[in-house]
Design brief:
This protein is mostly helical. The chain has five helices and five strands. The chain has a three-stranded mixed beta sheet with strand order 1-4-5. A two-stranded parallel sheet has the order 2-3.
Length: 146
């Protein structure tokens, strides 16, 4: 927990951000499984932009040395905002895009072409998918039917 913003020393804000990304991935895999089981042609696809030069992090407050590293060292490896959209565009527009696949720079990297990224075991764990699906239904008060 906490509200610390450190990227390198486990600040609460960064950890919650990472948890939401993991939850999104697990939910997409759960959706893919349920859609596939029903024989649906609907695809559940996820995408990541890598590190893209946008204003997304402009309001993040970091310790001065982390901000320096982020803005003047790490940012040299960022790709353009336009290139960052390619995973999303590929997932939406490529007729060959597959359900249950994460599109973005290879190995969840910082930059590069949008390619399929293989899932990690914890993203496709049946117990995690079931728990997240059921918890999401309970939290929203909506039964997700496919």
């Amino acid at each position: 927990g906490g509200d610390g913003a450190s990227m390198f020393f486990g600040g609460g804000k960064i950890l919650r951000y990472a948890q939401t990304k993991l939850a999104n991935s697990v939910m997409v895999h759960a959706m893919h499984e349920k859609l596939s089981a029903k024989g649906s042609k609907v695809r559940a696809i996820s995408a990541h932009p890598g590190a893209s030069a946008t204003n997304f992090g402009d309001e993040i407050e970091l310790p001065w040395f982390e901000m320096f590293f982020f803005r003047y060292v790490l940012s040299r490896f960022f790709q353009s905002a336009e290139d960052g959209t390619m995973g999303l565009l590929r997932g939406m527009m490529d007729p060959e895009a597959e359900s249950g696949v994460l599109y973005g720079p290879a190995n969840s990297g910082l930059n590069g072409p949008a390619v399929p990224n293989p899932p990690k075991n914890y993203e496709t764990d049946p117990e995690a998918m079931k728990m997240l699906w059921e918890t999401s239904e309970e939290t929203t008060g909506i039964k997700f039917t496919i």
